[in-house]
């Protein structure tokens, strides 16, 4: 296997074998590459059986990409390796072993729209009008509670305002309705796995022995339940590698606790820490502009990205009075660059925050065509 595609810090993280490892790094610095190469190196150099490695990704797509990459690096299909999101991994563990806590292997997994249907059903049982009590915030509140491992009784005991008391009355009924439907929602996949491991220590022990190496990507976005699960699984051997970037935590609104990555060093005082600061995606002017903004965050680990691509246009900020003017200025800029022969249309990308904002651009471009 060719480790020449790694810089010295990445190599250090990849070669570290046993014990906790925190890879702390900025955007585009090769965190996912480190995870992938670490898995490959454990299999190739240390002959760790793939079935003893658990790699957690943030999305299903990222899991597929990692498998594809490993196939390429190792020149073969790796059977038995566990790569997936927390939800996918928990679902698999529960289908294998959930019987021990009375979860049948054929349970259903409810998505958000199933959840909302169920909450509507509970609201009507409680004679609460769904026009007055919007099911969505109730669903979200229950989800936030579950991510923090707060069960219905405890939630009810802590409920402090009118909305929370409504949620407290829905929550236990919602759980019963899930159970009656032989279903788990996404949060339950984690909760039930934690319950399985807590109530059946022998089952936990079996998985601890199976997963001798655990790797977690995008660790800045784990929520409390996911954190607890990782600690349980890695508890016996501590061969846990987490990679993440506190600056990139964007999921606090749905329960992520970026403090957990900063806490890793307290949880594992003997953890090896590797910081990746070399960026492979952007030019230095872009990294500098990003740094000037992010460095004003009060709670963040110190790091500063650099690249050897020192050249590059500066980032410009152009205030405009409305969306039409914005679209016009951008269209004119693109036209001009293409006209001067500096760029082709395919060199440009326009990012906007919500789909509705594409309209002004589409209209402008149609007109300029
Ligand atoms: N040592 C290296 N040499 C050349 N290219 C590299 C190196 N390390 C990473 N890259 C490239 O940089 C890009 C970013 O890598 P990667 O996705 O692993 O970074 P990341 O830190 O996980 O990014 P993100 O913050 O978006 O999760 C990829 O295109 C990758 O191929
Ligand atoms: Mg990544």
Structure description:
It is built from 15 helices and eight strands. With 369 residues, the protein is of the alpha/beta class. It has three domains: 3-90 and 190-282, P-loop containing nucleotide triphosphate hydrolases (Rossmann fold, 3-Layer(aba) Sandwich); 110-180, Arc Repressor Mutant, subunit A, CATH 1.10.10.160; 323-368, no CATH class. β2 (53-56), α3 and β3 form a beta-alpha-beta unit. α4 crosses α9 (186-199) and α7 (152-158) runs antiparallel to α8. The longest helix has 19 residues, at 162-180. Magnesium ion binds next to α2.
Find the count of extended strands (DSSP E, 2+ residues): 8
What is the typical, i.e. mean, pLDDT? 94
Parts with pLDDT < 50 across at least 5 consecutive residues: none
β-sheet strand percentage: 5-15%
Instruction: Return the structural class.
Output: alpha/beta
The first-level CATH class name of the largest domain: Alpha Beta
């Amino acid at each position: 296997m060719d480790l020449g595609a790694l810089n010295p810090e990445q190599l250090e993280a990849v070669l570290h074998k046993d014990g906790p490892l925190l890879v702390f790094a900025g955007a585009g610095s090769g965190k996912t590459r480190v995870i992938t190469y670490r898995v490959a190196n454990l299999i190739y150099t240390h002959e760790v059986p793939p079935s003893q490695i658990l790699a957690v990704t943030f999305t299903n797509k990222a899991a597929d990409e990692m498998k594809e990459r490993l196939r390429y690096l190792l020149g073969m299909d790796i059977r038995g390796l566990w790569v997936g999101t927390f939800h996918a991994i928990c679902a698999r563990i529960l289908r294998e072993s959930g019987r021990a806590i009375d979860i049948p292997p054929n349970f259903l997994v409810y998505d958000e729209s199933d959840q909302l249907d169920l909450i509507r059903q509970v609201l009507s049982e409680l004679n609460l009008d769904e026009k007055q009590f919007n099911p969505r915030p109730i669903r979200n509140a229950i989800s936030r509670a579950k991510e923090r491992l707060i069960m219905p009784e405890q939630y009810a005991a802590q409920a402090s305002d009118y909305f929370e008391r409504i949620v407290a009355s829905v929550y236990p009924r919602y759980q019963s309705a899930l159970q009656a439907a032989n279903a788990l929602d996404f949060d339950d996949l984690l909760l039930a796995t934690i319950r399985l491991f807590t109530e059946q220590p022998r089952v936990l022990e079996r998985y601890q022995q199976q997963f001798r190496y655990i790797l977690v990507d995008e660790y800045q976005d784990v929520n409390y339940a996911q954190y607890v699960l990782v600690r349980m699984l890695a508890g016996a051997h501590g061969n846990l590698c987490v990679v993440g970037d506190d600056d990139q935590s964007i999921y606090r609104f749905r329960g992520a606790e970026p403090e957990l990555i900063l806490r890793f060093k307290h949880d594992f005082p003997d953890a090896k820490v590797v910081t990746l600061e070399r960026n492979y995606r952007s030019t230095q002017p872009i990294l500098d502009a990003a740094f000037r903004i992010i460095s004003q965050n009060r709670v963040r680990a110190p790091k500063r990205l650099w690249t050897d691509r020192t050249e590059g246009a500066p980032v410009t900020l152009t205030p405009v009075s409305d969306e039409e003017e914005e679209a016009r200025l951008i269209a004119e800029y693109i036209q001009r660059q293409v006209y001067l022969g500096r760029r082709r249309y395919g060199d440009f990308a326009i990012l906007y925050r919500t789909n509705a904002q594409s309209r002004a651009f589409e209209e402008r471009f149609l007109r300029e065509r």
